Amino acid sequence: MPDQLSDAQPQFLTVGEGEAAREIAMLVRPAQAGNDAPALVWLSGYRSDMSGTKAVELDGLAAELGLACIRLDYSGHGLSGGSFGDGTISRWLEEALAVLRHVAPDRIILVGSSMGGWIALRLAQELARQGGVTLEGPKLAGMVLIAPAPDFTSELIEPNLKAKERKSLAERGYFEERSQYSPEPNIYTRALIEDGRKNRVLDGIIETGCPVHILQGMKDADVPHAHAMKLVEHLPADDVVLTFVRDGDHRLSRPGDIALLLSAVKGIIRSSTNRQMPVRAAEADKFA
């Protein structure tokens, strides 16, 4: 499937004020006329962007089905401005919320990969909170989470910090870790870790109010599959499907993995359409 960046021009949205202002890049595919199915919203992982394989495949599915699709690059990622070193969950959450307010879809399906899964869960909480106050904002129709990493700073990083890494955090404000996906090391800042504690979701019941499908590789070296099982325990009120990929790694970007992802998204679309209104058989077949 061709990279949709080749036939779509990014738009830019200014988020924040003064020194905190940054230009956030987004790619917005409009829905075909008359198609009122939920818009697909892609949320990337740490150091990933909206031109990655899974993001492009999701946009391709939207094009095939005539759906709207919204992709964005967090600040310090991809085409967006801002410094990566300034990034925190709160900051990237603010940007995702700003993009959704700007595009203003009626209903959305959040598709979050790794850290994007954490941001998706926080988005669900913020949309519920803000909607309860203003009765405005998009309605969450479903979520697909790929190797989700909620609370990864406090659950997966902090407990495993080595002495030299703690020293680097204290003295330099960050530490580096070799990346198996890039020649450049991963950088984790003290601000990211401290802010992560404020955005924890695995400290109580998470109520998304929508169906959730989780895809998790059992050979994921970055986010253990036990982490996905722990997340399910915090979603007791939702319709949750957890699919394990026995030989899957963290990226889940192989053709078979992509097929699973697109099938999961179609399933959420189908269930959201059925809840919204009865559909003609021909329309339902598109999502089968």
Automatic annotation (TrEMBL):
Record domain AB hydrolase-1: where: 55-255
Recorded GO MF terms: hydrolase activity
A Pfam match: Abhydrolase_6
Catalytic activity entry: S-hexadecanoyl-L-cysteinyl-[protein] + H2O = L-cysteinyl-[protein] + hexadecanoate + H(+); mycophenolic acid O-acyl-beta-D-glucuronide + H2O = mycophenolate + D-glucuronate + H(+)
InterPro entries recorded: AB_hydrolase_1, AB_hydrolase_fold, ABHD10_acyl-thioesterase
EC number: 3.1.1.93, 3.1.2.22
The entry's keywords: Hydrolase, Transit peptide
Role this protein plays: Acts as an acyl-protein thioesterase that hydrolyzes fatty acids from acylated residues in proteins. Regulates the mitochondrial S-depalmitoylation of the nucleophilic active site residue of peroxiredoxin-5/PRDX5, a key antioxidant protein, therefore modulating mitochondrial antioxidant ability. Also catalyzes the deglucuronidation of mycophenolic acid acyl-glucuronide, an active metabolite of the immunosuppressant drug mycophenolate.
Name of the protein in question: Palmitoyl-protein thioesterase ABHD10, mitochondrial
